[in-house]
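Key result, reporting period 2: structure in, sequence out.
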């Protein structure tokens, strides 16, 4: 009899306890979109949009404008939430291609005598031939297009080191 009462009491206690929310960087909404990043309008009234695959529509993106603008011309996946007015609030973004060439992004790190790209999921991808212009960007979030066992086809800095 006591065990029969114990289970509902424990469940009630758990239901009333507030859990610690996950860190914002790890929280990811189920909504995602894939497309090409573009900047439309003219200064000072310009905004970042995602030209959704298939070209049927553009979706205005809300988020870190500096990061989003640095991704102009790249195909990306964005995760977040749909917002009012057909906008999309970006929580996370990942580079997919640059000019049709598969790309990967992450934090640039020293790896022994060489370099590696540390992806969001923690993988350390060795970079065989890092371009000279990126060698001073340790700790920055960068993207590299093409196989990592040779010089990249193209590359860029997404966010400076923190």
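The corresponding designed sequence is given below.
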């Amino acid at each position: 009899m006591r065990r029969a009462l114990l289970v509902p009491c424990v469940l009630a206690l758990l239901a009333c306890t507030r859990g610690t929310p996950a860190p914002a960087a790890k929280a990811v909404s189920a909504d995602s979109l894939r497309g090409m990043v573009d900047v439309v309008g003219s200064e000072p009234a310009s905004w970042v949009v995602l030209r959704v695959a298939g070209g049927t529509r553009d979706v205005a993106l809300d988020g870190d404008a500096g990061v989003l603008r640095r991704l102009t011309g790249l195909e990306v996946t964005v995760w977040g939430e749909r917002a009012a007015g057909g906008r999309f609030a970006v929580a996370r973004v990942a580079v997919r291609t640059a000019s049709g060439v598969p790309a990967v992004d992450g934090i640039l790190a020293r790896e022994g005598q060489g370099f590696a790209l540390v992806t969001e999921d923690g993988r350390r991808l060795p970079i065989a031939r890092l371009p000279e212009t990126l060698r001073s960007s340790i700790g920055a979030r960068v993207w590299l297009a093409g196989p990592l066992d040779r010089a990249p086809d193209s590359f860029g800095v997404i966010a400076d080191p923190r």
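Helices lie at 2-16, 65-70. The beta strands are 31-42, 45-52, 58-62, 74-82, 88-98, 101-111, 114-118, 124-127, 141-145, 154-159. This case is discussed further under Risks and Mitigation.
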